[in-house]
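Cont'd.
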Amino acid sequence: MASPLLKEKANNIQTERQESLEKERLTENKEIARQAGETTKMSWTLNDFAIGRPLGKGRFGHVYLGKENASGYVVALKVLFKKELVRLNVPHQLRREVEIQYHLRHPNILRLYGYFHDAERVYIVLEYCQRGELYRILKERGRLNQEDTAKYIYQLSSALDFCHERNVIHRDIKPENVLIDKNGDLKLSDFGWAVQHDGSVKRATICGTLDYLPPEMLAQMPHTHKVDNWSVGILMFECLVGKAPFEVPTQSETIDRIKRCHFKLPDSMEAGAKELINKIIRIEPEERLSLKEVMAHPWLIQHYPKAASHHAIETVTK
Ligand code: ATP
Ligand code: MG
């Protein structure tokens, strides 16, 4: 058994580590606050925000428009009831979601600026996306043109490639989890199903929405980051066609079609788009195009020319 002295030393190290993590969090908060025009605030409480209209309702709470009083900086505030979180046994999942999202800094990943809590609630301070969910935009417009689709697929691939390079798999890509900001840029959100793995472990949890689930997850087989690539192909199809490729009236038929990878591309779809989708939606995960290949695909560059210059810059700086 460890001596009391050793134990105390271990405890001290742990406390120091916790203190240093907390310090890091506060410094980061301070940095965000500084960027937002505020220089002295170390951590937030509800009094620091003016709460505006509700933006939506999620599984565990509500999201409101918020404005940081000191800076006037507009954010989205996600408010979760602790009691509900405990009742649904999700505090651990929430902590993981917050940790993962907090550390991912990419122009197409929704920023999580910080969080705070009071006796009853947890508040998550998020980047505000004025145009809301891609799901709603798709519902309103029916489908998207090639230019918007190419841009969103490029930005989503770029965000996911960034996640994968950090061993994070999102695992829940769908139009509800993709937000659009005031400039029309895509922000990937909702890391509730995400995992951070050590590079070799293949996870086999069933999660995500049926229409976007890849065959290996349906079959409850081990899976890798390639599950996200599959969903990029599904999203591209849904944007261009207005419905997901395996969407049929019954769930059992959807499952059957996904397992056989049985889907039909409309004749009216441009050849380049067909080729790209066919190269992503593949039963065999290793056959699916890599996200870098998606970003450099001729159809994508044709309809989102910025992709070419971004790609060139990325290649040069690597
Ligand atoms: P679920 O897991 O069911 O998706 P959730 O708890 O993750 O729920 P969110 O999806 O994050 O909740 O938020 C609920 C709604 O609030 C969304 O549908 C969206 O319309 C709106 N919303 C969330 N975050 C933002 C944001 N950053 N900017 C603008 N609107 C947002
Ligand atoms: Mg959501």
